[in-house]
Specification:
CATH architecture of the largest domain: 3-Layer(aba) Sandwich
CATH superfamily of the largest domain: Vaccinia Virus protein VP39
Strand content: 15-25%
Strand order of the largest sheet: 3-2-1-4-5-7-6
Structural class: alpha/beta
Helix content: 25-40%
Order of helices and strands: HHEHEHEEHEEEHHHEHEHEHEHEHEE
Largest sheet: 7 strands, mixed
Number of domains: 2
Shape: globular
Number of strands: 14
Distance between the termini: 38 Å
Length: about 375
């Protein structure tokens, strides 16, 4: 690991004296990458952080430097959210898992040993921090790049340099006040500051993206993807096979309405460059994240859950894509595959698998000759 980002956690009075031998011992034998000592956050400050972020049952809370897991566990136990804790110390990860089991929230939380700078934050709707001002400043570009519009960021004690918080809360402690800061990921405002095209303009401009050899979906299928995303209120999607971005634009247009974000994967460098240019020109960058490389390699590195996945790449690899994404799709989410009619002989076994899968309800949308299989996860 390249960085140890454990959190400072304050314990005052006799609690601080009790912790002193532990901190001294830890300082003598630090873990590789460990930069700051581990001190626990008071429970009432944890509660204040989660309340300031207005955490609810639909949220996914990421705690960066999660220690004994108390923030993630409280989010699940007290607010009904799902949570992920990222912690570099394997001993604390194991302790967190035990505490989660005792709190009976193990099915709603996950703890992983890792470096927060290498962690995909895009699934998070809330990120909690207790790092340092310097580390917050280093982390800020990653937060702005990866978090969906409207995601909340809460930091205990340390601000974000010249990024003013939306709110600032002071919480009484045994010896002094705790300060908690709240920011909101500004994707919508960034879009307004760059290019703010109305929907009618984007719907007209999107046809300029179509090029021979780019294997773009028919317009009617693009409109179907938009309607599905917007109509179901989907907020987090994955596309396998970006090409030059035509179908991604339709999905991003729907996600602009729901406040969501699409991750789209493309292996061909030229097509990826074209897609990036198209997203920028249409002002959709806040709603689309383009990742370059082989989807079979990239998908295992991307955290779920997803509301929907759209597969439109190498037909012979559809079963492999499915096996990788199925565990990452939430209940009620959709897995869509393109060309199931136009490439019926090659995809017959794949479609039969979808139609007989005990955890899916599948139908074929036939509005275009290409055909899209729509599988809703039970």
């Amino acid at each position: 690991m390249t960085a140890r980002i454990a959190r400072f956690r304050e314990v005052f009075g006799w609690g601080a004296l009790w912790m002193a031998p532990v901190l001294t011992a830890g300082a003598c034998a630090p873990l590789p990458g460990q930069e700051v000592p581990y001190v626990q956050t008071p429970h009432h400050v944890v509660d204040a952080m989660l309340r300031l972020a207005a955490v609810g049952k639909d949220d996914v809370v990421y705690d960066l430097g999660s220690g004994d897991g108390r923030v993630v566990i409280a989010a699940a136990r007290d607010f009904g959210a799902r949570g992920v804790g990222i912690e570099i110390d394997p001993r604390l990860v194991a302790e967190s898992i035990r505490w989660a089991a005792r709190a009976r929230v193990a099915e709603r939380v996950r703890f992983a040993q890792g470096d927060l700078f290498q962690t995909d934050l895009s699934p998070a709707t809330v990120v909690t921090l207790y790092l340092t001002r310097e580390v917050n400043a280093r982390l800020r570009p990653k937060l702005l790049r990866e978090l969906r519009p409207g995601a909340r960021i809460v930091s205990h004690r340390f601000d974000m340099d010249d990024w003013p918080p939306e709110r600032e809360l002071r919480v009484e402690g045994e010896a002094s006040e705790h300060v908690v800061y709240l920011w909101v990921a500004p994707g919508r405002r960034l879009a307004a500051q760059s290019v703010q095209l109305d929907e009618a303009t984007i719907r007209a401009e999107v046809e300029k993206i179509r090029q021979p050899g780019m294997m773009n979906v028919p317009r009617v299928d693009g409109e179907f993807l938009h309607d599905l995303v917007a109509g179901r209120g989907y907020r987090r999607g994955l596309e396998i096979g970006t090409s030059n971005g035509y179908s991604a634009v339709w999905m991003a247009l729907g996600l602009r309405k729901t406040g969501g974000r699409l991750i789209t994967l493309e292996i061909d460098a030229h097509r990826a460059d074209l897609a990036a240019e198209n997203f920028k020109r249409l002002g959709l960058e806040p709603y689309v994240e383009l990742r370059r490389g082989d989807a079979l390699t990239l998908i295992p590195t991307i955290e779920g859950p997803f509301d929907f996945v759209f597969i439109d790449a190498w037909k012979e690899d559809y079963p492999k894509y499915f096996e990788l994404v199925f565990p990452k799709v939430r209940s009620g989410g959709a897995i869509l595959a393109h060309n199931v009619l136009s490439h019926a002989p090659a995809l017959r076994a794949f479609v039969e698998m979808l139609q007989t899968h005990p955890q899916l309800e599948t139908h074929i949308d036939r509005r275009s000759p290409a055909g899209i299989s729509v599988s809703i996860k039970k």
